[in-house]
Amino acid sequence: MINEAVKYYSLNELWKNIKKLSPKRRYIAGGSDIVISHHYDDLNTDLLVDISDIKELNIVKETSDSVFIGAAVKISEFKKNNIIKRYIPALYECVDYYASPSVRNIATLGGNLVNSSPCADGVLALVASGARVVRNLYGKQKLSDIFDVIIGPKKTSLKKDELIEGFIVPKWEHRAVFLKMMPRKIFGISKAGLCVCANLKGNLFKDIRISASSVGPAVIDCKKTSRFLTDKDITNDIINKAKDIISCEISPIDDHRSTADYRREITAVFLQRAIEKFVV
Amino acid sequence: MKKSNIKHYKISCQVNGNKFTGYIDPNLRLIDFLRDVLNLKGTKEGCGEGECGACMVLVNGVSVNSCLVMAFSVDGKSIITIEGVDDIKYGKSLKEGFKRKAAVQCGFCTPGFIISASELLEKNPDATEEDIKKALSGNICRCTGYKKIIEAVEWARKNDK
């Protein structure tokens, strides 16, 4: 049970008022996770602070070399936004795999990161896109690596009252492939996921970033596999070696959704499929 | 008796075209507000976790699971429930399509399907069978097997006046 709720529409208004409120407070943006916890009386908080309509958290804007995405932008918006389609194809591709259409109208990218789930589809796309996180505490911004924020399953390094204001994604010439294995064809939590963002020149990967989900305690930035594939002529032998490397780079477990062996196998198969999509 | 410390939250919103202004318990989810405060019982609660889609309503024209939204957060917004679909595009024809195609058995999931389908057809009047399947992927029906539901949406798409 909560005793109070407040809702703010600007960061200025939030930071001006927040310290006067009950110290036992939680922030809510989309609510697709937090409302369920509240329903099962699992929130342990007095106050909910609604930041879903804060204007600074609801914008997508581009500069000459990057795109800023506000933390409270709804997942469904990514499919409609031409800046995202042009410069962050991984996020555009991930929408169709992300929960159900109505949950996409509620859920936010900031919440996806703060929830720190190993199977977070939005985080998977952000990591492969090379995104960084804009944190904000009482009006002071700080730029962080995604993996400075995520410190484990359901755990972040965010301080009390510290918010994710948004994400800065560099503009770089690339295409994206987003693959997800789930129990149903659509609307399911992943058994394993893979996102590859890459720039292919001829038969060589000039820049490539690979991320994997549901195969470790958090989304994994597969740096070894990415480094291995950079500047390599793509042959069957190289693809097989890359599959071996990614199999060692992930650390899947057995759980109620799948087995470690299957997850390792499908991640390697996904890598092959992704590379083939680039080359063809 | 222990005194409640709950501070009620003042909201103003439109529900099915009617203005509501009043103080509500901040613990209420949108579905609780609709069913228990406004007595709009057409919106159903199935799983309570955003999986089944029985509680779907439109908030500012987009479908949301009302079990995943806090009622205070709809302050200033416009809500359409199954009781108000006659007044939105495709609403009447979807209801007619569900009747004609016998897409209703127990009926528990039907309000959610109609809300999802109305959002789809409003955005995409040329929706294909594949589009309909994708748009309804967040709605679960345990009776009909979906075929008749898809036929009902196709009927509404073709016959809306």
Structure description:
The complex is a heterodimer of chains A (280) and B (161). With 280 residues, chain A is of the alpha+beta class. Chain A has three domains: 47 residues; 115 residues, Uridine Diphospho-n-acetylenolpyruvylglucosamine Reductase, domain 3 (2-Layer Sandwich); 105 residues, 2-Layer Sandwich (Enolase-like, domain 1), CATH 3.30.390.50. In chain A, helix 2 links the parallel strand 2 and strand 3. In chain A, helix 9 packs antiparallel against helix 10 and helix 10 runs antiparallel to helix 11. The longest helix of chain A is centred in the C-terminal third of the chain and has 20 residues. The model of chain A has no long low-confidence stretch (mean pLDDT 95). Chain B has two domains: 73 residues, Beta-grasp domain (Ubiquitin-like (UB roll)), CATH 3.10.20.30; 75 residues, Orthogonal Bundle (DNA polymerase, domain 1), CATH 1.10.150.120. Chain B contains five helices and five strands. A five-stranded mixed β-sheet of chain B has the order 2-1-5-3-4, with helices on one face. The relative contact order of chain B is 0.16.
Features:
heterodimer, A: alpha+beta, Uridine Diphospho-n-acetylenolpyruvylglucosamine Reductase, domain 3, Enolase-like, domain 1, 3 domains, five-stranded antiparallel sheet, four-stranded antiparallel sheet, 32% helix, B: 161 residues, alpha+beta, Ubiquitin-like (UB roll), five-stranded mixed sheet, 5 strands
CATH architecture heading of the largest domain in chain A: 2-Layer Sandwich
SS element count, helices of chain B: 5
In percent, how helical is the residue content of chain B? 25-40%
- Spatially, the strands of the biggest sheet of chain B line up as 2-1-5-3-4
Category from helices, strands and their pairing of chain B? alpha+beta
Assign the CATH class of the largest domain in chain B: Mainly Alpha
The CATH superfamily name of the largest domain in chain B is [2Fe-2S]-binding domain
Evaluate the radius of gyration of chain B.
16 Å
The best one-word shape of chain B is: elongated
CATH topology of the largest domain in chain B: DNA polymerase, domain 1
Q: Which residues of chain B form runs of ≥5 with pLDDT under 50?
A: none
CATH topology of the largest domain in chain A, by name, is Uridine Diphospho-n-acetylenolpyruvylglucosamine Reductase, domain 3
